[in-house]
Design a protein that fits this description.
This protein has 113 residues and is mostly helical. It has one domain. Helices cover 61% and strands 0% of the residues.
């Protein structure tokens, strides 16, 4: 859940997605959590791919990046934390819908390596 919370937060704050590579790291993290069941092997392949990729073009970021924020998660109890982070992740992922194909392409490139 920690990794997913970091990816959510980063995708909602410009200073954590300054480059195409940093955006790729966090946006693919969301995709892996939502569409790949959080498979750490996929995240590891993406991280290896990113470490050897010099430049990725950064697309324009959406103005609205999710209806939920960290404020909606920070005060939930331990029993509800995972559910709250998953809802937050879905909110952020939905806000980035115009870039879903790009995130999938980045993962495909990492897996092809």
């Amino acid at each position: 859940m920690r990794r997913l919370a970091v990816d959510c937060y980063a995708c909602q704050h410009d200073r954590y997605i300054l480059s195409g590579r940093s955006l790729a790291a966090h946006l693919t993290g969301l995709e892996v959590a939502i569409e790949h069941g959080g498979d750490e092997r996929v995240n590891e392949r993406v991280q290896r791919w990113l470490s050897s990729t010099r430049h990725l073009e950064k697309p324009a970021v959406p103005a609205a990046r999710g209806e939920m924020t960290i404020a909606d998660v920070v005060d939930v109890g331990p029993d509800e934390y995972a559910k709250a982070v998953r809802r937050w992740a879905r909110s952020v992922w939905d806000a980035w819908r115009e870039h879903h194909a790009l995130a999938r392409a980045w993962i495909a490139a990492a897996e092809a390596r």
